[in-house]
Amino acid sequence: MNNQVSNLSRYLLIGAAFSLVISIFTPIWRIDLDAPQYPEGLRLLIYANKLGGDVEIVNGLNHYIGMKTLHSEDFIEFTLLPYLIGFFAAASFFVAFKRSKKLLYALLVLFLVFGIVSMIDFWRWEYDYGHNLDPNAAIVVPGMAYQPPLIGFKQLLNFGAYSIPDIGGWLFILAGLLMLAASYIEFKGGKKISQTVINLSFPLGLLFLASCGQPGPEPINVNKDVCQHCKMNISDTRFAAELITPKGRIYKFDDILCMAAFDNNQPEKGGIMYICDYGNPGTLVSIDSVSFLKGEAIQSPMRGNVAAFASDEDMNEYNIAWQAKPIGKAELFVALSK
């Protein structure tokens, strides 16, 4: 009986090791907080060894509801976690070098236990901070707890809390999946399985890398999505627009006029803007890749009276009837801000 792992499994383990090493230096988890008074939102980033993001602002808000302030030095996890992740990275390299199936299975079991214990500890940490409140706080709501969700969404007074993995967390999950794939391949011992994994590894790797980058635009849901600025339902996808902020938040608008007004009032600039191609309703295109027409005959929902075209041919065809004025993006935003 062959007790050595295949070359493919070794490559998977090395990939898991590199994923774990990178996860030490990137945010593992994040908690996003949305509220009307913070249009851009607040973000708490959890690294392997520290807290990041809008920690001081969150601490200021927590003071009013009686929650303890957050300080990296108060968590022993931030001292232990980098070493524990480093241990599993080193162990993955070691198993790949030794090529032992028994060590591979043991590594997978230990890693799964580590992941489960980590999530339980995270839940315990959230429970403690959300329930052990100062009874003398400025804002006391009887029976109210402020425990963020372990994963997903939860409404906390006027704040919406989103708890999801960040880049490091997805890399951590990827490492576990690579260990699981290696174990499955060795358990089955089939060459056909190995070849299937090889065939799938490249496109799946590209998909994972793409998911870690800047999010792209979301489709506009007609009569369901609401304009972030004017609060009207988006009903005409010829004029709809979308803004992705530097923090990755996505805001939708029924008119470029609304997007310009919303962006003008934001403290943090530099987001990515998309606008629907008038010639292909509902198709969102980068605002830097379109040409604009502005004129009274266009009549967009909030009277921005601007249409965007990805194709100059389409623009010229529509403009036969409109006789509108071509306008550049910089000039357009100056005009819309007045």
Structural commentary:
The chain has nine helices and twelve strands. The strands form three sheets. The protein has a five-stranded antiparallel sheet. By secondary structure, it is of the alpha+beta class. The protein folds into two domains: 7-211; 241-336, no CATH class. Helix 3 (77-98) runs antiparallel to helix 4 and helix 4 packs antiparallel against helix 5 (167-188).
Principal-axes geometry comes out as flat
Average pLDDT: 85
Helix content: 40-55%
Structural class: alpha+beta
Radius of gyration: 25 Å
Count structural domains. Answer: 2
Tally of DSSP β-strands: 12
Strand order of the largest sheet: 3-2-1-5-4
What's the helix count?
9
- Please describe the biggest sheet, giving its number of strands, its sense, and whether it closes into a barrel: 5 strands, antiparallel
Task: Describe the secondary-structure layout.
Elements lengths: L6 H18 L4 E7 L2 E9 L4 E3 L1 H11 L11 H22 L2 H31 L20 E5 L2 E7 L1 H22 L2 H21 L29 E4 L5 E4 L2 H9 L7 E5 L7 E3 L4 E4 L11 E4 L2 H11 L2 E3 L1 H8 L2
Give the tags.
5-stranded antiparallel sheet; 12 strands; single chain; 338 residues; 2 domains; alpha+beta; 4-stranded antiparallel sheet; 45% helix; flat
In short:
The protein has helices spanning 7-24, 55-65, 77-98, 101-131, 167-188, 191-211, 256-264, 312-322, 329-336, and strands spanning 29-35, 38-46, 51-53, 152-156, 159-165, 241-244, 250-253, 272-276, 284-286, 291-294, 306-309, 325-327.
